[in-house]
């Protein structure tokens, strides 16, 4: 049963026929079903996720990762505490986050929260722009069993032919370029955009515009941290899920204010 649980956890959103377990363990399907019923109960009690059973010849069992509200709240509060450390303040009032983005365990937990928020959304792939959002995108992709598409800021010859667009980002409204290989994304794909930080939303809006060139649609947007200093009407997009909100950075007093994002309001 332990090995069966591990098998399911390592294959989220993957339909596994009961015959797979029956052949793997040399057991009858009825015994496998009883074991799965126990695993399902434990998953739900511990807030690990759902175990869905599909009947019929093409049926089987599917593990859907879902983080319970209590666990999600605990993680988000811990994330806020880490972000509030005074030594994160950089010149110009910027916040250092690279160390957090480089922690696999932390990103995996954040990925589970996004997988929970978008568990029942029809998605074909995860998209992010290089480079800081990459760990978060891969963590989310692993939990949703989906591929990751990377948008680059500069075209690479090894990417083949690509589509490039200009977009405006940053407090100084600077003009930037982003590019995506034509082979990286199928037309009419449904895409979940994931990024590490969002201020006014210029970079994410750039990805939205880039998706339009592929006749693709945005299935959702998830950001680790959003800026709370931007008024709602000034933000370029309104429909997104955030885990934390950066309220203020006082470089002189070495104080940072971070609160939970809108995750629980979605």
Automatic annotation (TrEMBL):
UniProt domain Phosphoribosyltransferase: residue ranges: 100-232
Coiled coil keyword on record: no
Pfam families from the UniProt entry: Pribosyltran, PuR_N
SUPFAM superfamilies referenced in this protein's UniProt entry, alphabetically: PRTase-like, Winged helix' DNA-binding domain
Gene3D superfamilies named among the record's database cross-references: 3.40.50.2020, Winged helix-like DNA-binding domain superfamily/Winged helix DNA-binding domain
Domain Bacterial purine repressor N-terminal residue range list: 1-65
UniProt keyword terms in alphabetical order: DNA-binding, Transcription, Transcription regulation
ATP-binding in keyword set: no
Recorded superkingdom: Bacteria
Family: Belongs to the purine/pyrimidine phosphoribosyltransferase family. PurR subfamily.
Subunit structure, as described in the record: Homodimer.
The name this protein goes by in its record: Pur operon repressor
Organism: Paenibacillus aceti
Lineage per the UniProt record: Bacteria, Bacillati, Bacillota, Bacilli, Bacillales
